[in-house]
Amino acid sequence: MDLKKRYLVDDILPDLDEKMVFIGGARQVGKTSMAQYIAENHYKSSDYLNWDVREDRRNILQSRFKGDAQLILFDEIHKYKDWKNYLKGQFDKHRGEFKILVTGSVRLDIYRRGGDSLMGRYFYYRLHPFSVAESLGKRNHLKPRHEIDIADAQHLKPSRRWPC
């Protein structure tokens, strides 16, 4: 499968060295494909586990992963009732052995908010559908989690400013 590099990949890679990374977003925007792109292009070995697949679910619950996996991809694990504690335990126990990348629906963002046992253990990204610029290979200069410099907006003519 020829997967296309998405706009978040370069931001996600260094974050995986520090913490788990969660990727949320609407259906069919390419969360799983982007995760597989990262695994195939940046890690020698990975393990993809989808909560919706019975055999994968069994492997998740028994903590059976590929022995040489450098990256574990958990897809749709937020459907598991105790997923937060499960991921916390896996991350705390195996932090030096493999990286953890979690993909799921927009609900990942909702679940991550309340009394979070995962606090400080992950970075969250929301993947959006392909934009025209991304399809043309153009890179947005805005960076996730960075301040937007709007100092130059004062020099725009009033008719050219964004409405408030």
Structural commentary:
The protein is an alpha/beta fold and 164 residues long. It has a single domain (9-160), classed as P-loop containing nucleotide triphosphate hydrolases (Rossmann fold, 3-Layer(aba) Sandwich). It contains 6 helices and 5 strands; from the N terminus they run H-E-H-E-H-E-H-E-H-E-H. A 5-stranded parallel β-sheet has the order 2-3-4-1-5. It is globular. Mean pLDDT is 83; it is low at 159-164.
Sum this structure up briefly.
This protein has 164 residues and is α/β, with parallel strands linked by helices. It has 6 helices and 5 strands; from the N terminus they run αβαβαβαβαβα. The chain has helices at 9-16, 31-42, 54-61, 83-94, 107-111, 132-135; strands spanning 20-24, 46-50, 71-75, 99-103, 122-126.
Key words describing this protein structure:
164 residues, five-stranded parallel β-sheet, single chain, 30% helix, disordered C terminus, alpha/beta, Rossmann fold
CATH class group: Alpha Beta
SSE pattern, N- to C-terminal: HEHEHEHEHEH
Number of domains: 1
Dominant shape = globular
Sequence stretches where pLDDT stays below 50 over 5 or more residues: 159-164
Walk me through the topology.
Layout: H1 9-16, E1 20-24, H2 31-42, E2 46-50, H3 54-61, E3 71-75, H4 83-94, E4 99-103, H5 107-111, E5 122-126, H6 132-135
Parallel strand pairs: 1-4, 1-5, 2-3, 3-4
